[in-house]
Amino acid sequence: MRVARLFPVLALLAAAPAAAQEVDLELVLMADATGSITTEEILFQRQGYAQALTDPEVLAAIAGTAYGSIAVTYVEWGQFDSQDVVVPWTVIAGEAEAAGFAAALLERPRRAYGRNAIGAALLLGKALIEENDIQGWRRIIDFSADSTGNFNGPATEEARAEVLAAGITINGLAIACRDCSAGSGDEGGDIESGFRDRIIGGPGAFVVTAESAPAFAAAVKRKLILEISGLHGLPVVAAR
C-alpha cells in the first residue's frame, strides 16, 4: 500500500517543471547591425564584446556577484523584421563559459540588416528576458547604436516605456566613431544626448560613448563591468 501511494506523488514530481536557474544578472547584448554598419564593422563589434567578456577584470566582476554567475545573450538588430539572436542565453560563471560564448560570437554569420527599428529591438530584448528559463536578480538590455533615429516598427518611446514598466533597465553604448562603425547618424551629432533622452532608462541606467576605434573595446569592457557589478548607482552618463 505504501508503494502504491507513492506513485501519484512520484508522478507529480516528474511532471513538475524544473525550477528556473538563478543568476545575478540577465543581460541582453543588443548590437547595431543596421544598413549603416558594414560586415567588417559587425565583426569589429563582435570582437570588442568577445574580448571584453573574456577579460580578467570582467570575469572578476562576475565572480564577485551574489551568485557568481550571469546569463548573457547576443542579438543583432536592424529593421523591424530583421532582428535575431546570434548567441543564445548562456550562463557564464567563469573562463570556460566566457570563452565558449566568445568563440560562438565570432564564428556565426550576420543576422540583421535594414534601417533602424529601435522600438522593435527593445521589445525583442524584453521578450528574450521574459521567456527564458533563467531568473536574474537584475535584468538589463545593453543597447548599442550609431543613431537614435527610428524608421520602422513600434515607436521608440512606446517600446521603451513597456520595457521599463516590466522592471528591465536599458543601458546604452553610443557609437560615435567613424573608424569603428558608420558613425553618429543623429542630427547635430550629439548621439550621447540622444541616448540619454530617448533610449536609456531604469534604475542605474547609463550610456557609454565610443568615439574612436581603440575606444570601442575599452567602452564595452567598462560598460560590462558597471552592469555586472551594479555599482553605478544613480543614472549617470559615463564619460569617454
Topology overview:
Blueprint: H1 2-15, E1 21-32, H2 39-53, H3 56-63, E2 70-77, E3 83-92, H4 95-107, H5 118-130, E4 134-145, H6 156-165, E5 169-175, H7 191-198, E6 206-210, H8 213-229, E7 236-238
Parallel strand pairs: 1-2, 1-4, 4-5, 5-6, 6-7
Antiparallel strand pairs: 2-3
Helix pairs in contact: 2-4, 2-8, 3-8, 5-6
The fraction of residues assigned to DSSP E strands is 15-25%
* Topology, number of strands: 7
Q: Nearest-angstrom radius of gyration?
A: 19 Å
Q: Total helix count? A: 8
Secondary-structure class: alpha/beta
Anisotropy-based shape: globular
Note down, in words, how this protein is organized.
There is one protein chain. The protein has helices at residues 2-15, 39-53, 56-63, 95-107, 118-130, 156-165, 191-198, 213-229, and strands at residues 21-32, 70-77, 83-92, 134-145, 169-175, 206-210, 236-238. The protein is an alpha/beta fold and 240 residues long. It has a single domain, classed as von Willebrand factor, type A domain (Rossmann fold), CATH 3.40.50. A 7-stranded mixed β-sheet has the order 3-2-1-4-5-6-7, with helices on both faces. A hairpin with a 5-residue loop joins strand 2 and strand 3 (83-92). Helix 2 runs antiparallel to helix 4, helix 2 (39-53) packs across helix 8 (213-229) and helix 5 packs parallel to helix 6 (156-165). The chain is globular.
Summary, kept brief:
By secondary structure, the protein is α/β, with parallel strands linked by helices.
